[in-house]
Design a protein that fits this description.
The structure holds 2 protein chains of 2 kinds. Chain A is mostly helical. Chain A is built from 10 helices and 4 strands. Chain A has a single domain, classed as MetI-like (MetI-like fold), CATH 1.10.3720. Helices cover 65% and strands 3% of the residues of chain A. In chain A, the strands form 2 sheets. Chain A has a two-stranded antiparallel ribbon with strand order 1-2. In chain A, a hairpin with a 6-residue loop joins strand 3 and strand 4. By secondary structure, chain B is α/β, with parallel strands linked by helices. Chain B has a single domain, classed as Rossmann fold, CATH 3.40.50.300. A 6-stranded mixed β-sheet of chain B has the order 6-7-8-3-9-10, sandwiched between helices. Chain B has a 4-stranded antiparallel β-sheet with strand order 2-1-4-5, covered by helices on one side. In chain B, helix 3 packs across helix 4 and helix 3 runs parallel beside helix 6. The radius of gyration of chain B is 18 Å and the shape is globular. The chains are: A mainly alpha, B alpha/beta. The interface between A and B is medium-sized, with 26 and 32 residues. Bound molecules: adenosine-5'-triphosphate (ATP) and magnesium ion. Magnesium ion binds next to helix 1 of chain B.
Chain lengths: 335, 258
């Protein structure tokens, strides 16, 4: 805050002989309220960091012995038999299923969610904005099991012929090769996940698009920008960091989604050859762990699942870091 | 490159509220016309009708006629986007695009017009920044964000951005009200230079500024709050300031000076 004359109105303290002198940083530290609040905030921060570190440490401690016993290559093997004398486990299949399904979900949800948010903030008639926004926020809060049910009961029958058409038309393309599985294929799961996370992307993007300063928009319009050009030059760049954050939250939800996925996936038939096809079944990290929680009988078994969970942790962390870097690099250009 | 504006019997509404009533005036090409008047009398509102920016505000509409030379700005087949490319605008608060570099800010209008050629962009960016008296201050940091400049520099950047598309008319709504006296003088000098090329309309609350930069002055007033604003008189700046025909003008000007 500064007054009209440009003289700062806060951060001033009394000088020794009564005149006002600016005290930039240490403005009001030392007062009881500030000390209390500062202390509480610092403590919360420290606790959060400590907890994340402890969780990571716990996961690593549990996972390492199991990994030492592992007879297979953890990252490149498709075998999963963590029990017995000679445990062997590799995560390739879950990794592929998880990453492929989450990628499909993002590829659909981010553009679609952004488009809906743009419509709601920039195009929709004023009477529609409030109710529509409330509806989207509501959808974002619907428990995932509901999306799972909807996918299984309502969406699956429609998806089946669509998959058949894709297989017969683009079957030559390895990702779309026919597998004989028709229920919960990776593509199907990806689409259900995308529908689940679209409201998240929309709700957050709408929030930030709506905050684009009128001055920027008018600046573009006064230059002779059309409505869409105005959006492209001001609303989208202004909203970019927010959209990236929204996508990260959505990705986190898609990667970790358990319930919906658990009862949608079809597992591979016994003995069937595994392929990269998106029409394969298979488990994601989250569904695999959830489905087998009852099996955590020996430290090695448990360790194997925890190691898989750790990969999920690292994956999320990596994607988030990349997003952070992207935002930081443009920071000077986004006030 | 400069056009005359002829306004006949213009009323401006915000939904049902009549904000400006019955304005008729002529703005001469290659001259500076200043709008003065008390707050809320519709100067900004009227100014924005000269490039149809009032249509951006929900409920904003006009009755009457605005001619740019012999083009009717409100003809049914007239595209507001085309109007704004011909009649540029500078706002009260400097509003460079924060996500763009200095260079990209100036080039923005041209890029909207489909100019891609790097060489011609370079050329226009340089001449526009020079015309805006900003080139020497920013030529070594064209790639830096425009929002990193001082307020006065940002306002000159916005002027450079507006003149880069070679408009016929430049509208300025209190362009100096957020600036310090030195930056204000820089902008005033700039306005005096730019009038050789453009028709300029400037809204100001600063009488001295109106007296310094403008050739003609228009005084707006409203009879009472809630009434629409009206044009009281328009004439040569020296005449309006020294020998106005209307008592209201005299009161307003002497009040401010006194
Ligand atoms: N967006 C709007 N919606 C409704 N009424 C508006 C809007 N903008 C301005 N008005 C009204 O129109 C009238 C004229 O306002 P305007 O902003 O044009 O005045 P002004 O002469 O530019 O004042 P100032 O010198 O303070 O900038 C005022 O009564 C104002 O309340
Ligand atoms: Mg105004």
């Amino acid at each position: 805050m500064s007054s009209v004359t440009g003289v700062p109105t806060v951060n001033d303290g009394e000088g020794p002989d009564g005149q006002r002198v600016p005290q930039a940083d240490r403005a009001s530290t030392g007062r009881l309220g500030d000390r209390l609040f500062g202390g509480a905030a610092t403590a919360s921060g420290v606790i959060v960091i400590a907890m994340v570190t402890l969780i990571a440490t716990f996961l690593i401690i549990q996972a390492v012995p199991a990994l030492m016993n592992n007879q297979e290559n953890f990252l490149t093997s498709r075998v999963w038999s963590p029990g017995g004398e000679e445990p062997g486990f590799g995560i390739l299949e879950f990794l592929w299923t998880t990453v492929a399904a989450a990628t499909i979900a993002m590829l659909i949800a981010v553009p679609f969610g952004v488009a809906v948010a743009l419509f709601l903030t920039q195009y929709a008639p004023a009477w529609m904005r409030g109710p529509a926004a409330a509806l989207v926020d509501l959808l974002a809060a619907v428990p995932s099991i509901v999306y799972g049910l909807w996918g299984l009961i309502t969406f699956a029958p429609f998806f089946k012929p669509f998959q058949g058409w894709l297989e017969s038309t683009f079957g030559w393309f390895p990702l779309l090769a026919q597998t004989g599985i028709t229920g919960g294929t990776i593509l199907f799961i990806g689409i259900v996940l995308s529908i689940m996370v679209v409201p998240i992307v929309t709700a957050l993007s709408r929030e930030i698009f709506g905050q684009t300063p009128l001055a920027h928009k008018e600046g573009a319009l006064a230059l002779g920008a059309t409505h869409w050009e105005m959006i492209r030059t001001t609303v989208l760049p202004f909203g970019r960091p927010g959209v990236i954050s929204a996508a990260m939250l959505a990705l986190g939800r898609a990667l970790g989604e358990t319930l919906a996925v658990t009862f949608l996936v079809s597992s591979l038939p016994n003995g069937a050859a595994w392929t990269w096809s998106l029409f394969n079944g298979g488990e994601t990290f989250a569904s695999k762990i959830a489905n087998n929680a009852a099996e955590f009988s020996s430290p090695t078994r448990t360790g194997a699942y925890i190691a898989a969970g750790l990969v999920l942790f690292v994956l999320t962390f990596a994607v988030n870091s990349i997003a952070r870097i992207v935002i930081e690099r443009r920071k000077a250009f986004s006030e | 490159m400069a056009k005359r504006i002829d306004v006949t019997d213009l009323n401006v509404y915000y939904s049902a509220f009549k904000a400006v009533e019955g304005v008729s005036m002529t703005v001469e090409p290659r001259s500076v016309t200043a709008f003065i008047g008390p707050s809320g009398c519709g100067k900004s509102t009227f100014l924005r009708t000269l490039n149809r920016m009032h249509e951006v505000i929900a409920g904003g509409r006009v009755e009457g006629k605005v001619m740019l030379d012999n083009q009717d700005l409100y003809a049914p087949n007239m595209d507001p986007v085309a109007v704004r490319r011909t009649v540029g605008m500078v706002f009260q608060r400097p509003n460079p695009f924060p996500t763009m570099s200095i260079y990209d800010n100036v080039a923005a209008g041209l890029r909207l017009n489909g100019v891609k050629n790097k060489k011609s962009l370079d050329g226009v960016v340089e001449t526009s920044l020079k015309s805006a008296n900003l080139w020497n201050e920013v030529k070594d940091r064209l790639g830096k964000p425009g929002a990193g400049l001082s307020g006065g520099q940002q306002q000159r950047l916005c002027i450079a951005r507006a003149i880069a598309v070679q408009p016929q008319v430049l509208l300025m709504d209190e362009p100096c009200s957020a600036l310090d006296p030195i930056s204000t003088l820089a902008i005033e000098d700039l306005v005096s230079q730019l009038k050789n090329e453009f028709t300029i309309v400037i809204v100001t609350h600063n009488m001295q500024q109106a007296a310094r930069v403008s050739d003609r002055t228009a005084f707006f007033n409203l009879r009472a709050t809630g009434e629409p604003g009206r044009l009281v008189e328009i004439g040569d700046t020296t005449k309006i300031f020294n020998n106005p025909t209307q008592q209201a003008t005299e009161d307003y000007i002497s009040g401010r000076f006194g």
